[in-house]
Amino acid sequence: MVAAVGVAAALGCGDKEAERAAEQQAVRQEMAVAETTARRAAALPSDGLWTEAHLMDRLLRAGVAPRANPEPAPDAPWMGREPVRLLAGGGLVYAWIYPDSLARRRVSEAVDSLTAAPAGQTTPFAPPMLMVTNNNLLIVITGGRLTNHERIALAIQAGLPVIP
To answer: Is the pTM value of this prediction over 0.90?
Structure first.
């Protein structure tokens, strides 16, 4: 009887290990997609404007393992567009990339930086939450550890590299 319980427990562990290995393989594949996107950043013109490739490159360099988030973004119509949705640093990153800094500024000046929502409206973003802007990029970081919020924020606030 004891041996049967031990065999059943071992088989159960095998299933969990196989499931964990499959999850790790899926994450590695998602990271490969992120790295491919980030590699395109080097070939883009140095005009100071953020693109998805620049964002992925910066987040990879920050060590927060960005990958696509298949879940829909919170409802934030005041942002004027759909965000790039990422899983990064154990939390979520929503990135709105505008055509230029003026378009981004019109949006960011109309929202409270503590809630990423217009004054008097309830934020759709779960706490802890941080809003960061740089040139034509506005990001909201939510969930995960605060140290990763800081790491992501510093990576974005550093801006794009200047290429001579």
So the answer is: no
134: left (phi over 0), alpha (psi -120 to 50) or beta: beta
> Directed axis angle between helix 2-39 and helix 52-62, to 10°?
130
Domain count, the chain: 1
DSSP string, 23-76: HHHHHHHHHHHHHHHHHGGGGS--SS---HHHHHHHHHHHT---EE--SPPP--
* Contact call for residues 153 and 130 (beta carbons, < 8 A): yes
pLDDT for the residue 36: 58
Select the more confidently predicted residue: 27 or 105: 105
In a domain, 8, yes or no: no
Per the domain annotation, does 66 fall within a domain? yes
Q: 20 in a domain, yes or no?
A: no
What kind and span of H or E run contains 5?
helix 2-39
Q: Which domain holds residue 46?
A: 38-157
